[in-house]
Each structure stands twice: as structure tokens, then as C-alpha cells.
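task queued by scheduler; priority normal; single chain, no ligands, no partner chains; default sampling; output format set to C-alpha cells
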Amino acid sequence: MSTSSSNGFRKQRFTDDDGSGYDTIFTSEYGGSDFASDTYVAPGTHYEYLVVGDDDLSLRTMRATGGRRTGVIGPREDHVVFWLAQGHLEMHFADRVRVVRPGSPYIASASEAYRFESEETIYNGVHLADAFLRRVGRELGYHQPEGPMLFEQQDEVIARREPLRRLIRELSPALMDDRVQGAMRTALNRRLAVVVLDTFPLRDRGDDVPVANRLRDAIRFIEEHARERPAVRAIADAAGLSERSLQDVFVRTLGVTPSRFLRDHRLDEARRSLLHGVGEGGVADVASAWGFSNPGRFATAYRERFAESPSATIRAARGPRPENGTVSARVRRALSFIEDHADEALTVERIADAAGVRPRRLQQLFQAECGTSPMARVRHVRAERAERNAADEKRVDH
């Protein structure tokens, strides 16, 4: 299945079911380079490769199951940021080997060739044209190397905040809509490009410090000094930025101001404290420990962020059952997290952490309130999506 338009937008699908050869993907997507002949697919491998986007930026999905895949990807015109939702991937560069597992994003710079080996993988990625990234970088006033743009990986302190993945979830409905073209699509593409440039450090910049490193330093400073409620000026100084630049990078990358980020982090840490038990001072002591001097304002801010009161958090952590079949805030949060992350490698521990409850307690809550387990819910959501995707493809084909 393939659709395209004069401005470069296209939707294209390759799959073993319709007779597409595996090397067709490489021939089509990488200009017919001779490395495609060095691609190997084990017998019995099933694969599907989807492309949606234009010449500047496109979203990609690869599902390959039932066998092992190897090949060589040569220098190309686009940088690739991707996540594994499932499986195992090894990337063999000239000077290093990188093992990629489900979880954090990984960026493959356009100019670097590598051999890959993968098995049972589900891959979600964003391809950004080198020329487009350079243009956006110039607009931002970023120093760029004279040679190839070579990216470092995100620091863990940024990766766990998932700035790019959050933005993709927000923009993907519009990016996948063929009616969104021209200036509007370019604006959406640019938002994603800015986050890539803000969160993946560029190498070979001399003495210039990438904004990604400055953002990392700002977040670390906030996390280390959250109890002290540092002023925005102190955060900016720690990161080597002006207050205005700090505000700009936080808003466009994380969607919040530094002050709001600090407040949310303090609330998150207070919640962790409540989940792990409180002393004789109860909620008031926890609030005070994280810089909330007014208990009433703390309770209001806490309820706005977590949709429950601090005392409800304590009760949920201790384990009371909901009455009359109602679904608790924790289960609602877990269900929402499953919906948002169903295509990723989910575990009970990860879902429980997002819901703010211990794994065993989450299992109990699901059984009591939903009559099922968290992982059964994950499988159900995935099956529903597979059915919808199949139905959508049939409608498009007809």
C-alpha cells in the first residue's frame, strides 16, 4: 500500500504478506545502495515496515518476528531516532558495538555506517533529513560542526523524562493525516526537530557546550536541590544559561517552565515518600520536607497533579479495596499508562511505578476492580489495536 503527494508526503507499507522482499525496504528507503545485497533474513521471518511523513521528517514502524535479521546500513541522508518496543538489536560500528534493548531512545547519525543484527523486534522511529536538521539548527543559532553532524546519545537524566516520545504522542495524529501539508506540516516537523537538537548532544563542536548538556545540568541541579526550592536564576547559573534561554528550552522540550518543573518534581518526590510510609508527623512532615510550608496549598497542588488527596495516597498504599465496584485513581492511572505505552515493552513493575503503587498491590487492585491482571490488560489493548490496524488497512486498500 502506498500513497504520495507532490509535496513529498507519503504513506507506504512493505510486508512479507504482499510479496515485498526484505531488501526492497532498503532499496526503496536508502536509494538502492549496494549494501542492500548484504541484507539477510532468516527463513520464517515475518515483517512489516510502515512509513508516514514527508521529505523532512517521517515516522517509521518495523515489526519483524519469527527469525533473525542482519545487514549493513550505509551513510544516508537522514538521522534516525528510534525505540525498541520489543526484541534485541546489535549495531556494529567501525569503532564500537552498541546493544539496544527496549526502553531509552537511540540516535543513529546519518553519516555513520553500521552492521546490524536483530531478532524479534518491534521498532518505532523518526527519520529526520540532515539538511532539515541543519536548517532548524541555524534558525536556533546553534553552532554546527563543519563536517558531518554526529550525535551523542541522550543522558539518562533526560531520557527518563521522554521529551521526544511525549511530543510524538501529541503530534502523531496530525503527522499521520495526509490533509496536514505545507506550512502546517513543516511547523510540526520543526517542533520535533527542535526537541532532537535540544536533547541529543552534537559532537565536534569545539568549546561550545550543546544545549542538551545544559538542559541535563539544569534537571540534575533541580533534582539535587529540590528541597531547597532554588530560584530560576540559580538553576540557570548551574546550567550556564540565561534565565530567558532556560525558560525557552524547558518550555519547548519539556512543555513546562523551570518553576513548574521544580514544583512537579517536589510533588513527585512527596508522593514517593507517602507511598513508602510516613512517620508520626504524617502528611505535614512530608510536605514540609519537600518545601511545602502551607499544608492546604500542598493538598490542593497534590490533588491537581495526581487526582487524589495525599491521605488517599496513603490509604491506597496500605491496601484498602474500593467499594461498590468503583475504579480507583491508581487503576485509572495504570489503565491510561497502558493505553499510552502498549506498543512498548511493559512490565508490571513499570506500570506500577507509573500508577504510584507497589507491583503486588497493583495486581491486587486490578483483580478486585477489573477482574483481570495488568498484563492481561496489556495483551487485550494490543489485540484491539492489531484488529483496528488490520481493518484500517483493508479500508485503505479498497
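post-processing summary
- The chain is about 50% helix and 20% strand.
- Residues 292 and 298 are 6 Å apart (CA to CA).
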